[in-house]
Task: structure prediction
Amino acid sequence: MGLIRLAILVTSLGLLPTAVAGDDPVAITIASTTSTENSGLLDAILPRFTARTGFGARVVAVGTGQAIRLARRGDADVLFVHDRASEERFVSDGFGVERYDVMYNDYVVVGPASDPARIRGLSSVEEALRTIAATRSPFVSRGDDSGTHKAELRLWKAAGVNPKPASGSWYRETGQGQGATLNVASGMGAYMFVDRGTWISFKNRGDLELLVEGDPMLFNQYGVVLVNPEKHPHVQAEAGQAFVDWVLSPEGQDAIGAFRVEGQALFVPNARPGKPEPATPGR
Amino acid sequence: MAELGDTSSILPLRLEGVGFRAGDQQLLRDVSTDFEAGAPTVVLGPNGAGKSLLLRIAHGLLDPTRGTVRTVGGASPRDPAARRRQAMVFERPVLLRRSAAANVSYALALAGVGRAERPARVAKALARTGLKTLAERSARVLSAGEKQRLALARAWALEPELLFLDEPTAALDPAATAAIESLIGAIASAGTKIVMTTHDLGQARRVAGEILFVHRGVLVERGPASRFFQRPQSDAARAFIQGELVWD
Amino acid sequence: MQSLADAFRAAFGLVVGLDPDLLAIVGLSLWVSGTSLVLASLIGLPAGAALALTRFPGRRLVIVLVNALMGLPPVVVGLLVYLVLSRAGPLGGLGWLFTPKAMIVAQWLLITPIVMALSRQVVEDLWAEYAEQLASLGASPLRAIPTLLWDGRYSLFTTVLAGFGRAVGEVGAVIVVGGNIAHATRVMTTAIALETSKGDLPLALGLGFVLLGVAVAVNAAAALVREIGARQEGQSWRS
Result:
């Protein structure tokens, strides 16, 4: 029966190494965040990495928390995220070789143009959050254990406000990525805590506007970690190390600094090659 | 069917004390009879008398709830060897969605006929039933009469010793009916024992050598057709022949 | 609706421009869903037919289970496959995670119950008509399976298309096990999810229209094949 023969043929093709899967013989998997992927940074710099080293790179873009869980299970070769405390625990638990500062960007607070809580132009993000809470103005949180979410929670704590009891009333947790949550904020005219890169490249702003920026507390440091090959022997250690070295090298740092969206630089490179202790960036 | 090993005859097929009960309804009661080689046996009776049920039990499609059906060798009609010596054609035959020839070939394959032998037997069966020119036609597009002839061809190709026909012309027009009746005659003269049901008295007169008259699940009369039609023994048979007993 | 017009414009631009990235994404979508469909049919059709023809203790329960599995959320299937194919999982050594193979496995698991449940229904209906005749011809239920699958081919075709529709349109499973990696595991639905998260709603919706167009094209091609086949048999496929 021709049909069955065809089916067997198609099936066996499906089990062959698929041509679409890997363009390069060695391609590392980078577990990173939606902020680096959605802004287009990695699309912009990875071709230069491949041109320099000959290694390919594939990006799985999820929240920082999920990226770390992926890497812990050995499903990525390199971790490139932005929650320093979790990254350091990842290394001290033996899952990562070493953590390096790569670059930073900053968070901003956006909200509806009508600004019911009147936070526009405030220089203190803590004050802005307190005002939002006091006026019970709608605020959308990612609520997904991502780097951005953790940073937001730290700021609430610093502001002396516990938004958890208000969950479901003025404080809404979407449990989704940055972009999906921005769509919600845009749809309901809510305030939101978001990284500048995602905000600048986001297209569905509706009547959301950037209201608070520039507070040093809004600083957002990115780190890179090679997944420990002693923990997960299949890790592409050589290629992964090549990526870490390259992104910290002057060439990689220049590529990050040169990246622009709508004329704006989104990330500031601040690696200090050779120094294991990351520096605090000045602003 | 030399290649099938067991070629011993299944006739006479013997029904002994056969009863069939579905729920609280006694559909057949204590039927005992033999189907012997020879002229066609026609099972007559009003609608709902249990004629079709009797055929299905004799063919081995259903087990009786009482009594037994045995071949002369003592086998059940469900026994694979016995199964291959008999066939059945239904009032509305199920034809497979493939060509007329493939329908016949399929039945031969199931009966264990070798691949090499099938084409010749298919061709012969189609030729004998006047379907030669329709061999490659899809069975599902044939007319009702052609479908029934194909069902007969499929059964005849198996060269059964015993062939059951359940109301084979009930759904056909007079011309198609005549064609089927002449085929039944041909199959019978070629040596196959035919046992059929019909509610058409004229057909029974034309075809039958022997009559079984069933009434309310009971075998009321059995005898040569000529005697049955001239001198029915029971009141029920008399009423039936006069067209007064249509429903049981 | 300004954005709806933008979406149509975006879809039109994508199709007319024959964007190579888009073609690769559409191609991968068809490849992944098509392969998983073939695999699901190889298992689901005979299994569904067997379930229709056999009688065994607990059969009712199995049918209920299979029917329930039709409603399994894709993301649950994705998570199961992720845990199995993860480096730390039992089949991690295959290295399939974040490759199209993992996506095929996930969609295969997702649609096999659909193919199985719907084909069971088709075959059971057919069996009601065929049982006596096939028994008379001496066909055992096991032998009847290929016969019924072949005779039910036109109805089963629709069943299989339903499976394809579910596979090609789902995002939950493939995004978890494929990772939505550009030029490697990005398919139409994950591309739509990505553009939505970037807030580019017209482009996301435009991609959605392209996906719809692909689905329509596949169904139309299938209907054509079916119609031609049926006409050669001189019958409507509905019969």
